[in-house]
Design a protein that fits this description.
The complex is a heterodimer. Chain A starts with a helix and ends in a 5-residue tail after the last helix. By secondary structure, chain A is an all-alpha fold. Chain A has helices at residues 5-10, 12-44, 49-64, 67-80, 87-112, 116-124, 129-159, 171-182, 186-214. By secondary structure, chain B is mostly helical. Chain B has a single domain, classed as MetI-like fold, CATH 1.10.3720.10. Chain B contains eight helices and no strands. In chain B, helix 1 runs antiparallel to helix 7. The chains are: A mainly alpha, B mainly alpha. At the A-B interface, helix 3, helix 4, helix 5, helix 7 and helix 8 of A face helix 2, helix 3, helix 6, helix 7 and helix 8 of B.
């Protein structure tokens, strides 16, 4: 065995470049997931079956199929319908859409957790539907799901290496590119693995702080 | 589509199913060993199990796969690619499922364990006759989610040139040029397989619930809420 630790060290600058790309995709994707997830959760609760059923089906479908195939789908099909975006933007969008189906479930459980009396009180006070959501339901539903939502940042970050399939050079992509120059793949891949692990553990630690901060919801 | 291309699709489908089933079986072993070790009396055993779950939940599955394919041969083992795929997927999903096992074991009311101790059951009897039959019912719904995550993760092996369903899709796209159709068909294919696995798991859940004399859950298609 001839694993050379100094080559792991040499891969660090490439990893830092890749980390920026991975964090960028995670951030953009996470914002999309937070917003789109709420939209999905809202539409699924719609009283109109012609709205709630198709949205429910779509959410289940996206949640049950591989992100990788969804990445390929958007990467190859979006240009065919005249939308040209950079691979990074396409990837961040696909990541966001995929995780929106997870966050929508989280929102849904949060909304279901709001006591029925709150809905009745809003009706009794003659609040409009919009006021009911923005002033009564969501302010109670969202704080209690923040810890669960925070965990999805980590999950999304760990899915960013899949973006290499659509030519985005993040950490693993960078490691493989480095390997193809030097014909030594092990050390850069090990470097990528170490950085992924460190950042994921750091994020998990932050998520735990968020959980402690928002864990107890005052009622 | 020519018969030759169709053969790739069937091979891909078979490999995807094999990866999922064997990944799940091996992952189940890792999950039970690590999950039960988390409630061991020995600190060392608990520590090792915790390191396993934290490390493998922190590693992206794709990085793990590349590590097994590129790094392990340096230590003198040449893994069969399909086996490397199964191992990477199992190590990954096993870490998630270990948390499910741990949670389910904890969810068994403490009175049950006390009763088993009072009846002078050996530790193995307590586990086998009292704790696990009740814990397993609680494990099945989250295991269904783990299984679907595993199925989705099998598509990653196409990136290391293992001929799974996604790989067959790539071949099909390259040779027919029907990009949108191929990838849409691929998504539908995975959706259908996921539905099949969900139904099988629902049937298992019913069997387990019935064996305990508990009420049988209705419906065959719904999945439990996902926890991160």
């Amino acid at each position: 065995m001839n694993f050379q630790w100094n080559l792991v060290w040499d891969a660090v600058p490439t990893m830092l470049d890749g980390l920026v790309v991975a964090l960028f995709a995670t951030c953009i994707g996470y914002v999309i997931a937070l917003v789109l997830g709420l939209v999905f959760a809202f539409l699924r609760r719609s009283g109109n079956r012609w709205v709630s059923a198709p949205v429910g089906f779509l959410v289940e479908f996206i949640r049950s199929t591989p992100l990788l195939v969804q990445l390929f789908f958007f990467f190859y099909v979006l240009p065919l319908i005249g939308i040209s975006a950079s691979p990074l933007v396409t990837g961040a969008f696909a990541l966001g859409l995929h995780y929106a189906t997870y966050t929508s479930e989280v929102y849904r459980s949060g909304i279901d957790g709001v006591p029925a009396g709150q809905w009745e009180a809003a009706t009794a006070l003659n609040l409009s539907t919009r006021r009911t959501w923005t002033n009564v339901i969501l302010p109670q539903a969202i704080p209690r799901v923040i810890p669960a939502l925070a965990n999805y940042v980590i999950a999304m970050f760990k899915d960013t290496p899949q973006l290499l399939a659509i030519t985005v050079v993040e950490m693993l992509g960078g490691a493989i590119a480095l390997g193809s120059e030097t014909f030594r793949y092990s050390e850069p891949i090990a470097a990528a693995g170490i950085v992924y692990l460190l950042v994921a553990l750091l994020m998990a630690w932050l998520a735990r702080i968020v959980e402690r901060r928002f864990g107890q919801v005052r009622v | 589509m020519s018969a030759g291309l169709m053969a790739y699709v069937w091979e891909g489908l078979l490999n995807t199913l094999l990866l999922t089933v064997f990944g799940a079986l091996l992952g189940l072993v890792f999950a039970f060993v690590a999950g039960l070790a988390r409630s061991s009396e020995r600190k060392v055993v608990r520590g090792i199990a915790m390191v396993y779950t934290e490390v493998f939940r922190g590693f992206p599955a794709l990085v793990l796969l590349f590590a097994l394919i590129f790094i392990v041969p340096q230590f003198g083992f040449q893994l069969n690619p399909l086996f490397a795929g199964v191992l990477a997927l199992a190590l990954n999903i096993g870490a998630y499922a270990a948390e499910v096992v741990r949670g389910a074991v904890r969810s068994v009311p403490p009175g049950q364990l006390e009763a088993a101790i009072a009846l002078n059951f050996t530790p193995l009897q307590r586990l086998r006759k009292v704790i696990l039959p009740q814990a397993i019912v609680a494990m099945i719904p989250p295991f269904t989610n783990n299984l679907i995550e595993l199925l989705k993760a099998t598509s990653l092996v196409s990136l290391v040139y293992i001929s799974d369903l996604t790989f067959a899709g790539q071949l099909l796209r390259a040779s027919t040029g029907e990009t949108a159709l191929v990838f849409f068909g691929l998504l539908v294919g995975y959706g259908v397989i996921a539905l099949g696995f969900t139904v099988v798991m629902k049937l298992l859940e019913r069997m387990a619930a019935r064996s305990l004399g508990r009420s049988v859950p209705k419906g065959l298609f719904g999945r439990a809420e996902v926890a991160a």
